[in-house]
């Protein structure tokens, strides 16, 4: 049971005030010494409780400070050790990254690939779409897309993004999507990649349409190019189950050093489902040379 000490202390102060008023009234109106003595005894007990709570609060605060110091120390240690552990594991490999959570991704994700000797060729971000019907109508008219539903729209959008990453041949369509602020692009497209990283999950109150994820996975799976689905630890809606149904590797804590290490090892040829959520098999793959 969690105790709200601030509320408890405030309640005790209120009781003290009430007792003080009671003593004043009792001594003034009644002149009853027995009643006053009884009230003083109660006051002393409450003072003892207040002192005990203060000591408990101080102990908890010291413990919290110690845990915060330990956490900062571990994070600093992981930040310094990770580049050493991943060095050379993705040497000369190229990857594409697609952000689907409308929120972004931690910069440490790309840094881990760079530390491992790999390169992120391109980053594609899909913006949040509020008026789906209007967008579908616009695409029907301007691009002659044969889509009428949200599922069809996101599936087509995923295919166009995948085709641009792989071939770069549909640049006119991509430029239109960028101009309409449906997506953002950066980097080189049409360059062969050794793997695709999709950043999933959702921070919204309701989950997003997953057809775009599925379309990307299907496209690259057909080409036998590995796909890994990642998300941050605190997303409101996890994409891990959907990704696992499509038989791709997953990492559910990409905002942490163990998650970034797991992603590098997956991209280096150790598939699986890693992280801290119930959908994970274990925290991370075995490090080559590690005894099990």
Topology:
Blueprint: H1 5-30, H2 33-86, E1 94-99, H3 107-115, E2 119-126, H4 132-142, H5 150-166, H6 171-179, E3 183-187, E4 195-199, H7 211-222, E5 227-230, H8 240-245, E6 249-251, H9 257-267, E7 273-274
Parallel strand pairs: 1-2, 1-4, 4-5, 5-6, 6-7
Antiparallel strand pairs: 2-3
Helix pairs in contact: 1-2, 2-9, 3-9, 5-7
Descriptive notes:
- The chain is of the alpha/beta class.
- Helices cover 53% and strands 11% of the residues.
- It is built from nine helices and seven strands.
- It has a seven-stranded mixed beta sheet with strand order 3-2-1-4-5-6-7, sandwiched between helices.
- The mean pLDDT is 90.
Largest sheet: spatial strand order: 3-2-1-4-5-6-7
* Regions with little confidence, pLDDT below 50 for 5+ residues: none
Helix content: 40-55%
Strand tally: 7
User: What is the multimeric organization of the chains shown?
Assistant: single chain
Tally of separate helices: 9
Alpha carbon gap, first and last residue = 39 Å
Q: How many whole angstroms does the radius of gyration measure?
A: 29 Å
Structural class: alpha/beta
Strand content is 5-15%
Order of helices and strands: HHEHEHHHEEHEHEHE
Largest sheet at a glance?
7 strands, mixed
Shape: elongated
Mean pLDDT over all positions: 90
């Amino acid at each position: 049971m969690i105790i709200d000490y601030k509320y408890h202390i405030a309640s005790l102060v209120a009781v003290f005030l009430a007792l003080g008023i009671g003593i004043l009234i009792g001594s003034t109106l009644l002149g009853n010494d027995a009643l006053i003595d009884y009230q003083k005894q109660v006051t002393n007990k409450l003072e003892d409780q207040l002192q005990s709570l203060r000591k408990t609060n101080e102990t908890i605060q010291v413990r919290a400070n110690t845990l915060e110091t330990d956490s900062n120390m571990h994070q600093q240690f992981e930040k310094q050790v990770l580049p050493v552990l991943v060095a050379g594991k993705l040497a000369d490999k190229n990857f594409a990254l697609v952000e689907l959570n409308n929120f972004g991704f931690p910069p440490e994700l790309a840094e881990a690939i760079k530390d491992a000797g790999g390169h992120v060729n391109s980053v594609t971000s899909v913006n949040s779409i509020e008026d789906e019907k209007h967008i579908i109508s616009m695409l029907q008219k301007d691009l002659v897309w044969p889509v009428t539903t949200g599922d069809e729209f996101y599936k087509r959008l995923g295919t166009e993004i995948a085709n641009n990453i792989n071939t770069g041949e549909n640049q006119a369509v991509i430029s239109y999507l960028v101009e309409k602020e449906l997506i953002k692009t950066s980097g080189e497209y049409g360059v062969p990649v050794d793997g695709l990283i999709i950043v999933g999950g959702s921070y919204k109150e309701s989950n997003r349409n997953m057809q775009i994820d599925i379309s990307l996975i299907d496209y690259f799976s057909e080409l036998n190019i590995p796909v890994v689905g990642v998300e941050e630890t605190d997303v409101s809606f996890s994409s891990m189950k959907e990704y696992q149904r499509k038989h791709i590797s997953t990492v559910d804590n990409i905002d942490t050093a163990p998650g970034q290490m797991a992603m590098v090892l997956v991209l280096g040829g150790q598939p699986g489902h890693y992280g801290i959520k119930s959908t994970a098999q274990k925290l991370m793959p075995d490090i080559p040379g590690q005894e099990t």
